[in-house]
Structures are given as structure tokens and as C-alpha cells.
Amino acid sequence: MRVRFGQWSGTQDPFPPDVTADDVLSEIGDDLLAGRTPEEALERLMRRGMPGRVRGLDDLRRRVEEARRRELGRMGLEGPLRQVEERLGEILERERTALHFDADEHAAAAKLQQLDDLPPDIAAKLAALEDYDWTDRQAGEDFRQLMEQVRRDVAEATFGRLASALGSMSPEDLERMRDMLAELNGMVARNARGEDISADFVQFKQRYGDMLPGDPDSLEELLEELARRMAAMSRLLGSLDADQRAQLAQMSEQLLSDMDLGFQAEQLQRALQGRFPELGWGDGVPGAMPSGEQSGSLSDTVDWVEHLQEYSDLREALGQQYPGARLEDVDEEALRRTLGEDAARDLRALRDIERALEQAGALRRNQGRLELTPRGIRRLGERSLAKIYERAVTGQIGSHRARGSGGDGELTGATRPLVFGDPFRLDVSRTLYNAITRKAEVPGRSGGSGRLHLEPGDFELAEAERRVRSATVLLLDMSFSMPLRGNWVPAKRVALALHSLISSKFPEDRLYVVGFSDYARRLQPRDLLKTGWERVYGTNMQHAFMIARRLLSAHSGAERQVIMVTDGEPTAHLEGDTPWFNWPPEPRTLQLTMAEAARLTRTGATLNVFLLDHDPGAARFIEQMVRAYGGRIFYPSLADLGSLVVRDFLSNRRAA
């Protein structure tokens, strides 16, 4: 099969109409949040697909395997010999009947004895009858037609579509076939020695183009088709029992020799076995043994074996479990023949996923490795936020305002005279209007030079709403228990969603993310995808509160809040610069955590805790802490975590 590749124009859409690059990014989001690399996340997406929209490799492979099993149950392997034996039996029965009525009883008896003495195997039987003097003319003509049919069948079984050009199997046709095979073997030998045979192949096609299958562009393409055919014939022989194999091999060799094609066929097969060793020469039919009752000619059976091999090749290519596996290894045309056009479309979509994400600016390659771009991180956050809003009941985002107006925010449409200390944000049209009307009111000044002079009283300030500025610290528990309970990915999704919400809707606000396990540390938004949970013991809330207090101290004029997502109680604290862990928690750990929570809330910050998959002991401590310092505690399900955090953030801003 030939595949033509063209340059990506940026306009081709590999996905179904209802699938976008953002949908794909959303599909790999959880894997990225779980700490997998973009390559790993894309590989997992290709395996599972996008349910209901794009079938994945695992589903395509399963369907190919089902088709292969159905095909195995359709045919058996005994058909070629059985068909020849049955037809020959009918011919011999007609001849015996004629001999019984022959007037020359002595000659008839001799011929009957000759028929009785025929060897048992089919190949030798056909050879012995080549020189037989048929009494019944119709039987003789039927045998001649049978031999021509079997010779053609053997040639097509051996050479595939190449033999279909033999026409009437005339001496001239056979001679041209021999000449072509001899030239082909010569080119193969010269090519194996490293000689350039491109010009020879062009001339070869000019002479024998009408005989060649599929108009091959190169010698390699032609040889691959012939190799697959000859390998299928050898696998058929390898699947038979010893007696059947010997009979069929002998019949094929004998008939090819009769056509003077045996030597050229043997030479070509040896060369192809060395050139394409991966085709499983003589290995037998791939998979379970065929069990069907249908039968066909030898060439039909080899077609069927070749088809089974195509199923097996598809199954292996879709599995992608071999070194250097690529989706380009999957034969799209073979997949289309097996599963239909929809499957071929799914394959094209899977092949173009990485390229589409790169074109969308979400992924890029850096020193050979895929990485998510800042734009990709932002879009992933937007998708996380969109999912959260599907579950959240919110008002208009960004519409909540403080009373009064000020120097920052969106324009309200109102103006007022500019006074000292205002930001220099002029309403130009109103300012010019003031100057023009002032000039018109001065007697004798209505005409003049046409030049307009501005005075301080003309200037008008364009008023803007004053947005409430908020500083938020999101504390994420990164201890070992979070992934064990399935809490880590939803927690990171919340962080991405909050980052997306604040950066897009509230650019004057600030969001800090702090991760904590045995230590606490600040995380940048770009680090959220790379950051994983930590295989350490300890949940150091004391250190997390300490860092949150330091971060919020830079925003004394803003509303300040701390949101903590955790699944347990504090089990670690700092002794100097060293974390101290104990389970169950030591009283000193609880005391130091409570003290740091007190320092944090005394700055005016609110403390809200989202407790996941908790035990009663953890809940008691958290409830005591938030009750003591005016915070709140939530017990969300993982599905509701994001919507509750976002709604709480928005409600706190509205209350300011």
C-alpha cells in the first residue's frame, strides 16, 4: 500500500465535528495532573480513545480480533486437495464406466488395472495420468481442463496477482512469465549486491507493466507484495499435517516445473525469505487453527491465509507493544477493509492528536520531549474550571462589585472633573466638549484661528468601578495518603481551576499555591502539572500556615483568605528547620499547628478547610481549629470539591 503524506496546512481537522483540541487537552488533563508526562498521557488517550466520539487503539484492536476469530471459523485447510480429489474422482468414475462398456475387453481390463494402480497421493496421481490414453473423450477433456485449472491455481497461489496476467496459459504466456521472473531475479541479485537498479526497474515496468500487480513505484514495493503472497503459501503448508503438506507441496512443485516456472519460483522465494524474514515463513496460520467448513481452491485458501495474516498484523500494530512502535505502522487501508471507514477515520484522528495540540499551541517539543506550554496550562485550567461550573450554581463571574468607584477596574460610563491625585485617565470627548462650550460662551471668541486651548477646568476623569482586591492562598496536602485515597488529582484540578478563574476574571487578585507534606513550599502555576505527591510521612500544616501568613502579609489592604484541601490531621511540625513526624499526632504537633493558625487568622485572613475522605480523629481537630478561629469546614465528595471551592471563593469576594 502506498501512502502519500503532505504538509500540515493548519486547516485540516482530524477530529469529528464535535471534538476540539481543547476536548483532547481535557481528556489528558487527569493524567497530566497525576504526574504523567505528556507522552504518557497521550499514549493512554490513544489506547482508550474518547468514548462516544473517537475509538481508541484498544477498542480497534478488540474489534480486529473479533473479526479474525470469525474468519477462522469460516474456512478449513483441507479444501484445496479435497476439491482436486473430488473432481478427479468424478473424471475417473466416468472413465471406468466407459471401460466397462468397451468392446475390447482385453484393452479395457489393462486400463482398469492401470487406474487401480494409481498412487494414493494426489500429486503422483495427476502426474501418472498426464500420459494416460483416455477411452472416454469427455473424461479426457475434463482432465485436461482440470490440469489447466490446477496449474493456474498453483501459479496464482504462488505469485498472487502477478499470475493473473497469464491469460489462457498458452505457451507464449508461460514463456513471457518465465522471462519476467528471470529478469526480476536478476534485479534482486544486483540490488542485493548494492547496485543501483532504478533505471532497470523503469525498463522492467515498461516491458511487463501489464503483468505487475498494483502499478508498484519501486522494486521494494513489488517484492513486498510477492513476499507476502509466498509467505502465505508457506504458512498454509506449515498448517497442514505432514501427509497433506507433502502432497500439496509435491503437487505445487510438480506443476510449476511442468510450466518451467519451478526454478525461477524457488530462486525468488529464497531471495524473499532473506529479504523479509519477519513474515513468518512456514510458521502456520496465525492464531488458533481454522475450524470452518467452507472450502476453496488453493489460491482462494492462500488468499484467506493472507487475509488472516493481515488481521494479525493489524492486531500487533494496534497493540503498539513492540520496540519503536508508531501509529504510522497501522495499515489504514487494511483497517478500512476490516472495520470500515469509521475505524479509518478514528485512526487518522488518533494519529493527528499530537500535531493538533501543537498547532493549537498547547504542546511543544523541547529537545525531543513533549511538554505543555504556558498556553496549554492556561487552557487546561480553563477546561477544569468549565467542568467545575457545570456542577456549581453561580451568578455572573466577575459581576460582583464594591460600592463606590475608584481608579482601577472597568469603565462605568460616568465622568467627573479631574482633581489632584486622580489617575490621569481622561474622558477625551468630554474634555474637548468642555473646552468647546467654554470657548463659545466667551463673547467675541466664537470664531478665531480654529485652535482649541485646554484649561485645567476642562479635564474630565472617566470613572471606573473599584474592584475588591483579594489575596488567596490555596494549601494542598501533598502527603502520601492523598493519592492512596484518590484525592490528589481532584485537588490539583481545583488549583488549576482557581488559577484560571483568578487570572482571567480577577486579574487584580492574587493566588498563591502552597504544597505541604513533611515540609511546605510555594508552587508556581507552571509547576502544578509537574508536581506530584511526595512519598514521605507527615502532614505539616504548621509550616503551611506559616508560609501562607508570610505571603498574605504583602497584601495588607486586600481581602485575604486561606483555602486548605487535606485528607487528615497534622502529623508533623518543625523543630527549628527539621520536620518532626509522629503517628498518632503528638500533642506538641497539634499545639504548634493551632498556634500558627491563630497567628494567621489574627492578620484578618479567613481559614476554610475542605476535608476529604477523613477519619473521625482528623475531623475533630479541624473542627476545633476552625471553630476557634472563625473559619469553616466542608466535607465535600471528590465530584463536588471543585465547585464548592470556587463557590466559596466567589462568595467571600461578594461579601467583601
Topology:
Layout lengths: L20 H13 L4 H11 E2 L3 E2 L1 H16 L6 H22 L4 H12 L5 H8 L7 H23 L11 H22 L5 H11 L10 H21 L2 H17 L3 H14 L22 H22 L12 H8 L1 H11 L1 H7 L3 E4 L2 E4 L1 H18 L13 E13 L10 H14 L18 E6 L4 E8 L3 H4 L3 H18 L4 E7 L3 E4 L17 H12 L6 E8 L5 E4 L2 E4 L5 H16 L3 E6 L4 H13 L3 E3 L3 H18 L1
Parallel strand pairs: 7-8, 7-10, 10-13, 13-14
Antiparallel strand pairs: 1-2, 3-4, 5-6, 8-9, 11-12
Helix pairs in contact: 1-2, 1-17, 1-20, 3-13, 4-5, 4-7, 6-11, 7-11, 7-13, 8-9, 8-12, 10-13, 14-15, 17-20, 17-24, 20-24, 21-22
How would you describe what is shown here?
The protein is of the alpha/beta class and 656 residues long. It has 4 domains: 21-74 and 311-372, no CATH class; 79-284, no CATH class; 405-465, no CATH class; 470-655, von Willebrand factor, type A domain (Rossmann fold). 54% of the residues lie in helices and 11% in strands. It is built from 24 helices and 14 strands. Strands 9-8-7-10-13-14 form a 6-stranded mixed sheet, with helices on both faces. The radius of gyration is 41 Å and the shape is elongated. It starts with 20 loop residues before the first helix and ends with a helix.
Count of distinct strands: 14
Helix content: 40-55%
The main sheet comes to: 6 strands, mixed
Low-confidence stretches: 1-13, 391-407
* Proportion of residues in extended strands: 5-15%
Number of domains: 4
